[in-house]
Each structure stands twice: as C-alpha cells, then as structure tokens.
Predict the structure.
Amino acid sequence: MAEQNEGIEVSVEELRAKYAQEQLKRLRTDGLKQFSGLKEQFEELDQDPYADPNFTRDAIVEETEVVIVGGGFAGMLTGVDLQNQGITNFRIVEKGGDFGGTWYWNRYPGCMCDVESYTYLPLLEETGYMPTERYASAPEIFEYCQLLGRTFNLYDHALFQTIINGAVWDDSANRWNITTSRGDKISSKYIVIAGGILHKPKVPGIPGIENFKGRMFHTSRWDYDYTGGGPREFMDKLGDKRVGIIGTGATAIQAVPKLAEAAGELFVFQRTPSAVGVRNNGKTDEAWFKSLKPGWQQERIVNFTKAVTGEMPDVDLVNDGWTDVMWRNTQATVESPEHLAEMELSDFKTMEKLRRRVDTIIEDPETAAKLKAYYGKNCKRVCFHDDYLPSFNKPNVNLVDTDGKGIERVTETGVVVGGVEYPVDCLVFASGFEVNTDLDARVGFDPVGRGGVSLNESWSTGAHTLHGVLSGGFPNMMVISLVQAGFGTNFVHFLGRSARHVAELIKACNDQGIATIEATPEAEDGWLMVLYSVIGNGAEYVATCTPGYYNNEMSVPDEKAAKGLVYAGSLLDYHAHLDEFRAAGDFPGALVTKG
C-alpha cells in the first residue's frame, strides 16, 4: 500500500501541546464512577422492548455437559464449535428474546457494522450467505444471527428470556449447579461465560437527570413507540419534537444522521469529538462474491487483522478506511527512539488528514473546529461514516460542545451546558456500554468456586487467569472476554478463535479423562508478566489520550485495574499462545484432576 499521508505537514511540538491541552480539559476525579448502570439509576430504561412480555415456560431440571452464558456471537460460535467436536449436550442461556447479543439489543436507526461484512460475519462459507452490503446494517446482522441459529440447530439448545441467578461449584460431584430466573436447576460439568462486552448499557451520572419529565431511553433500548418508524423505517413521530442525544461516539455517528432527518430540532451534546473517516459503503458485487475460492474468508479475516495491527501483509485484501488509517506503525515493536518518533509523526499525520476532512464538509468554521479530534488514532475507536458530518450543515441540527467539561445538569425540561439551558422533549443516551466494570457485574451473577469463594472475592485484588480463559479456584469455568485476553478491531475474529479454543479444550479434557481443569497460581503470575511485557510503549501512548473506555476514563490504575488489562500485542500472537497451550497436550500451567 502506498503512503497514505503524502503531502500532509504537521508541527509535532504544536500537536503535542494541543493534545495535552485537550486532555487536561477533560480530566475528572470520578473516572468510571461518572457512569451508572441502567438498573442502578433507572430500571425502566433497562427493560427489553423487543421480547414478549407475556412469555412463560416451565422450569427445567437437567444435567448437561456445558452451559454457555450468552447468545451473541461468542456463545453461538461456542455452540457451533462444540458440535464440531462431537459435543451436543449443551445449553445456551440468554437474557434476550433471541440470538444476536449486541445485534439483538442495538436496533437504533442507522445502526450498522463498522467492520467489513465479509470479515465480520462469521461462517459465511459454511452458511452460503452473501451479505447484501459491504457494511451490513444491524437488521441484516440480527437476521444472520437467526440464520446461524437455524443452520446449526442452536435454537434446540437455547433458553431465552432467562437470566442466570447463580452458579455454584460442587466439589463432591465436580459439577456446576446453576439456577435461573425461570426456576431452572441445571447441573453442568463446564460453564462457559460468553456474555460479551456490548450489552450492558451505561448512562452518565448527570445531576438532575432523574427529574427530567420528557422521554428518555438508551440507544440499545430504542423506543420506536415514541419516535415512530423502525430500524429500516423513517421516524415519523419526531417532526414536532426537540431531541437531545448525549454522546458522539460510534453509536451517535450512526444515529445522528437519521435523527437529523426526522427531528424538528436536534441537539447533539458533545464532550469529545470522534475522528470520522470515509465509509464508501455499497452493494455486494454478486459475481465477485461467487468467484471467491474456498478458504477465502479465513484468509481475508487474517489479512485484515494483520493490516490493522501494523504487520503490513503483501496485499491489503480489504483496502478500506480501517486499513488506510491503521496500516502503518499501529502495534509495531519500537526498535529505537527514531522509530518511536516515526510512529508518532505517522499518527499525527493520520489524524490531521481526518481533521482536514472536517473542513471540506462543514460549512460553519466554528462548528468545524469543534468537530476535530485532537488525540492519537489509537485513543478511541476511529469512526467511518459519510452522512454524520454533513448532518451539522442542516438548519435543524445544533452541535452543543461542552468544551470537554460534559453536561452541567439536567432540568425537568432540558439540558444545561455552560449555563445555557437547551429545552428538549426527548433525551437519547448514546453513552455506550459497561466495558471496564467487574466481570461478575457485566454477566449479572457472581460464580462461586472452590471453598465457597466467589469470583468477585477471588478477583478482589485483580483478575488472575491463564490466557484470560481459565482461573484458579474455578474448575471447568472458561471465560471469553477482554479480561487478560486478546482484542482486535474485528472483534468477531477474537470471539471465533476463542470459541474454538474453548470447544477444543473441552473435547481434549474429555478425551483424556480429565475431571477438572483450572489455572495454577504460577501460570497466572506468568501470564500476567506476558501481558505486561507486550505493552511496549502503550502505557506512554495512552497517557496522552483524552478520557474514554480505552483508558478507563483516565482513572489512576490501582492494583486491581492494573491486572485487568487486555493482551496489547497482536491478536494473532495471542491466538498463537492459545494454540501452543492446546498443542502441548498436557496443558502446561493448568491444574488438572482425573476421574
């Protein structure tokens, strides 16, 4: 790929100073505490608007081999891979009314995948499905999840609209005893926690928010009864409404253009602007898609991951905004001070290119200045959209920039920023999801392992795992999450390989007559050292960022937070660790018992 930033000149010293200035504006002492889970503040905002409220079923009492917690891609792919390993006695427990995970919950207008469909949607070759667009819409992805459920008979294993209340390890039986909100009692040899990270909404803890008399909802619980329309339909009830949307991250980038089309007046409340590149979506070329050779999808997935982690494959198969922005010096090993300076300059130029794009689109210079992102490209998830920035040229759209301070307060009738009240009839929270809270809080229950010790107690001073999958004191519990595990721009690449690892590990344990498996303390300490060793210059980089979920809102990391990091090296390197562990045959670093 040719150099993407030719002709762009920047002053490194000036940008360093500007980045520091923008960070300082946004620093807060409350860190993650500035957000609340929906149930903590407004339980009604957390209701499932899509499920049948009259759904009932009889409680089940059964023994099974595996219980999978979560029916999103992680849980579904684990179910598929278990069947590939000949294991068919399993349950998938899902709080929603269908499969899909984040794609079940997120049905807001304009919602779509920001990663190419051909690499994001798993098992396209196995299902024979052709995405209709290069970047699929949320309704299409949800329908594809349903297709996966039918194709691989996952519906036969699912318990929907069901929440796990507890999971307790029975040492005498070497099994997990699991209870649910439907009165189920399930005994299982293994439990796989695959709850995902984009399903538990959070809202900003703004003073006075509980006093607002208008309509409020989170984007992942969109109220189409209020707005009219649907995920694919125009919102026909907003023509006389003043709508406020709080947040300008990846969700708002997609929702704002649709709200701008429908609302009488729209107020976009911004703390920190997103960097927004060109999307260039389009219909799938059917002839091209049908010409692809067997094995094409895995090749494309790996190629994309290499491209966005700085490994620079010989050919960029995806060649889109992601690979344009992330191609060079993204996660490359720093070899010298000169190399570090080269990486910094490349980063500055990439972001300057995105800032200059704002000037080519936004008509009002003052608004344009407020929409420019002054931070590194790896500080926040870069966004790609062709209609977001043009929305601010519409006469009914108002950008309310808080200059990094956030909203002051909410009144009964509006939102106050800089001492000015903006009257609104409706407030939409595009404030994201809980990503960095404790694992037990995100999955909704606290597993109790050996000796009656809960996960929350065991991890009270920080997570301890082997590869982010096994944890000492919790036999036969396997986790698919970001905690001490891999991460990638294409998150489903991580989920798919993790699901396969778990399924193959369970099969190997069964083949070897292993009754229990968990991590040893020595292996957990060793894995933590591996995690620290691959951080490289990442800590220094993140220290220059504005607050966000990538850096725990700039909270000062205590011992617990310092152990909850992700694997900062290449996702492919993380996968190699998993492969080596299984290939060894004797599971080095795992404590196993036979029986």
